[in-house]
Amino acid sequence: MLREFLHFRSLLCGRWDRIRDRDLCATWNANIMILLLLLLLLLLLLLILLRLLLPLLLLLLLLLLLLLLPLPLPLPLQLPLPLPLPLLLLLLLLLLLLLLLLLLLLLLLLLLLLLLLLLLLLLLLLQLPLLLLLLLLLLLLLLLLLLLLLLLLLLLLLLLLLLLLLLLLIIIIIIILLQLY
């Protein structure tokens, strides 16, 4: 089996004289096709997650720019005085922490995908029956979907936390303005 695995052309049935068992060659072809399909599915899931994370990252970067740069705002949004420095630093620190959490979540998902691929390769090398292999792959995909749902719930919690922080910031600004007047 190791000899056939090392000869890549034999595994792809490029030459029949290098392999004795044609059933083994057909099994390898089916396993390689399943692995390619799963790779495409994992890439699709990763792109969906990136599509969900990208607007949140852009929103956080926009908030950072609004806080750091003196952009001209409409008259109802203009403040007579800048925000206090401790409050500004606290808000910037919280936004940076949210960004770091999102990046850590993305790295965690990438590591999970790599571990899943390694496990799939191990299953393919063990030459399990096709039905058992498909059942194991379905279980792995269900686990991956559950992990994605947990990540999405965590992102929703982060969004709620960000909204609460913005609300707290608005309340503090209103209190400061009322004290000034």
From TrEMBL:
Residue ranges constituting the ABC transmembrane type-1 domain according to the UniProt record: 87-181
Protein's name according to its UniProt entry: ABC transmembrane type-1 domain-containing protein
Transmembrane segments: 28-49, 56-75, 87-118, 130-151, 157-178
Subcellular location: Membrane
Top-level taxonomic group: Eukaryota
Record's GO cellular component terms: membrane
Organism: Dreissena polymorpha (Zebra mussel)
Membrane topology: Multi-pass membrane protein
Alphabetical UniProt keywords: Membrane, Transmembrane, Transmembrane helix
Keyword Lipoprotein listed: no
Major subcellular site: membrane
BP terms from Gene Ontology: transmembrane transport
